[in-house]
Predict the 3D structure of the following.
Amino acid sequence: MATRDPRIDAYIARSAEFARPILTHLREVVHTGCPEVEETIRWGMPSFTYQGILCDMAAFKQHVAFGFWKGRLLVASAHDRSPEAMGNFGRITRLADLPSKRVLLGYVRKAMKLNEAGIRVAPKRPRRVREPVTVPPDLASALKRNARARATFDGFSPSHRREYVEWITEAKRAETRRRRLAQTLEQLAEGKSRNWKYE
């Protein structure tokens, strides 16, 4: 059974006046096309799920965006994502900017079938494979002498280790590098990541 999230009611109510009828229409189309859809908020915008993410919508100051999670497999290229707006239908400023209700319902039903079949969409860009972290000799030597710092460093993910290594190796002056190395050891001994202030 479909669920309606009151946070989406609030999202629509606080959206710009032009956007409210568009968002309401899109919501109703999704519920009509997929009676078992569930609503939630993802990434700060209304999202609809059915055996995985189905579609989402967002209101901006001057337009609305609507898109299917697997839109590249669904939406004809005539409506495909325009570079100036997210989603599959470009900048939507009025209901007439959308395909007909019948066409939208067809997209919703196709999206349901893709989710039911467990079909995944390949990413547009392949993931970048990063080189393994190479610990510079001065840091490796300092870590050998400080067991607590070494235990923290060894327990970190490669990305957390990389943050410390890059911070040290990017120093332009020897004095700056020594200061950063000392601060690294201090923070690691306290169990802190490089950017602990922002966590």
Remarks:
- The chain is about 45% helix and 10% strand.
- Confidence is low (pLDDT under 50) at residues 77-81.
- The chain has two domains: 6-116, 137-198.
